[in-house]
Batch of 2 targets.
Target 1
Amino acid sequence: MADPHEERADELEKVGDDLEKGGKRVEAMIKETREDWESKKSSSQAPGAQDAADAAPGGLGDEDDS
């Protein structure tokens, strides 16, 4: 019969490996989403994604022009 501590260590090692794989998958998804968002921000095809100053025709102007 195997040592219960070794069995538990093996189980925890497997859990750790699974978590590492999941973390790498999430990291890749975040990177892909960030790249997609950056490309949309620079595209005129998605004006809602642009910064306000970039999306406004002629810019926002100075607020101190009273």
Target 2
Amino acid sequence: MAKKPRMRATGKGGKGGKGMTFIMEENTLSPRIKTLPAYVDHVVGTTMSYYEPQVENYAKTNAPWNDQTTNARNGLTATSGKEKDAHFIVLAHQVPYGIWLEVRWSGKNAIIMPTIEVYGPKVMETLNKILDKYSGSPV
């Protein structure tokens, strides 16, 4: 359980000498604020790692084209990672003609953007829930 700040009253304060002034002797906010960047970094990285296989599986399962060799479907890969201060999930084709599956016929066979449209909101909802819990709990 988090420590409560100690406060002490000092003399008379306020208008006409009435009231009191309180001085906080122990800073309980700063230590928690200092842990926030590391906590957020951990939460975002863990969330990306959690969703990485789900994104890949969804893309492979829901790719709308008819397979001839299964190379395109099997070559869909999702990878999560971090570069500088940015976390990400990359979903990509491993076959050279993957770009044509995405853009030819006005995107009729596209799977990358539809997968992002499904999983983007799920990832953000998960992060919001976790970070909302942080705001109300001691570290």
